Amino acid sequence: MTIAKLARPEIRALKPYAAASQIDATIRLNANEAPWTSRADRFRRPLNRYPEIRPARLRSALADRYGCGEENLLVTRGTSEGIDLLLRVFCRAGQDSMLIIAPTFSMYRHYAAVQGARVIEVETSGHDDFAVDIDALLESCDATTRLIFICSPNNPTGTSMPRDNLLRLLDARGDRSAIVVDEAYIEFAGEPSMVGLLHSYSNLIVLRTLSKALAYAGARCGSVIGPAAVIDMLDAVQAPYAMATPVVECVENALQAENLNEAEQRVSDIVAERDRLVAAIDQFSFVRKIWSSAANFFLIEVDNVEALLEQCVADKILLRYFGGSLADCIRITVGSTAENDRLLQSFESVLNTSISS
């Protein structure tokens, strides 16, 4: 039995939108398109025509990159759309629930609220490096828990869930929950993707993105990778022509071998820069703790978070503050060497101000 049975009954019965036929070398008078191109149109595929209902060449390239079958992958407008689609497919409003750890990526909760799905949270603590208690997680599930989202490496903590824990979770929940592993930052972790286990676990779904390691956040291109039956249902729910022609073409360019090789080197550079920046920030007396990170960011705890944020704003540097259980913490994204040096100067200013006062 597969997790497809967990989907909403009306979604399981849903048929994809029947769009106008798209056949090369034909006169297209069937889709209410304009017969001329704009003089601003500079793309390989003319913009007066709708894009492919689903971008076949891009889907193939992404499947090749991630090591899965094309039937196991849906191209989405970032992983955020993938999260939204999953909640709409699996969770009945007012009846079903999803489970997340806390703190984690806030969009899981956001799309659950949009869908009317109940959210179950399993708290983690910085005192034990945000380790996830798998026993507590499993005990928190109930008969309504359709989705479990695991961001690994986790945003905003930077911590990864050990593979053994992920396997235990997959085994324990079986066909009662879909386990969604969000690997937005996996390239920075030096760890193997869970995609390789897709054929061993029918309840596994993986999210991937080009926003981080490939520096294509502005293109909004992600992937949902999972059982073919689940991908088919997501496909039926996703809007037709979801991926705009300019996005498809620029991402196809990004997936060329020379660009992937460059991205791989850039990832190595970011990891090295992350380690340098962490080591430098750790020397400041007002920094209480820096958590180990497997991503392109890291989380720190400081004595006077307001003073540090105010100084950085004055120096035109933006950091991420969350509040709540992370009230004394700041998430820092690793920038270029020059940008990171400017950040260290801001830290120096905070230190000098505290000493003089």
What value does the Rg take, in angstroms? 22 Å
Count of folded domains = 2
> Which parts are unreliable, with pLDDT below 50 for 5 consecutive residues or more?
none
**How would you name the CATH homologous superfamily of the largest domain?**
Type I PLP-dependent aspartate aminotransferase-like (Major domain)
Overall number of strands = 11
| Strand order, sheet with most strands | 1-7-6-5-4-2-3
Please give the largest β-sheet. Answer: 7 strands, mixed
Q: What class do helices, strands and sheet pairing give?
A: alpha/beta
User: Helicity level, as a percent range?
Assistant: 25-40%
- Taken from the alpha-carbon principal axes, the silhouette is globular
Number of helices: 11
State the end-to-end distance: 67 Å
CATH architecture of the largest domain: 3-Layer(aba) Sandwich
> What top-tier CATH class of the largest domain fits best?
Alpha Beta
Report mean pLDDT, rounded to a whole number: 95
| Share in β-strands | 15-25%
Question: Can you describe what's shown?
Answer:
The chain has 357 residues and is of the alpha/beta class. Helix content is 36%, strand content 17%. The chain folds into two domains: 3-255, Aspartate Aminotransferase, domain 2; 259-356, Aspartate Aminotransferase, domain 1 (Alpha-Beta Complex). The chain has helices at 9-12, 56-66, 78-90, 107-115, 134-140, 163-173, 228-237, 245-254, 257-281, 305-314, 337-356, and strands at residues 73-76, 97-102, 118-123, 145-151, 178-182, 204-209, 222-225, 287-290, 297-302, 320-323, 326-333. Strands 1-7-6-5-4-2-3 form a seven-stranded mixed beta sheet, with helices on both faces. Strand 8 and strand 9 (297-302) form a beta hairpin. Helix 3 runs parallel beside helix 4, helix 9 (257-281) runs parallel beside helix 11 and helix 10 crosses helix 11 (337-356). The protein is globular, with a radius of gyration of 22 Å. The N and C termini lie far apart (67 Å).
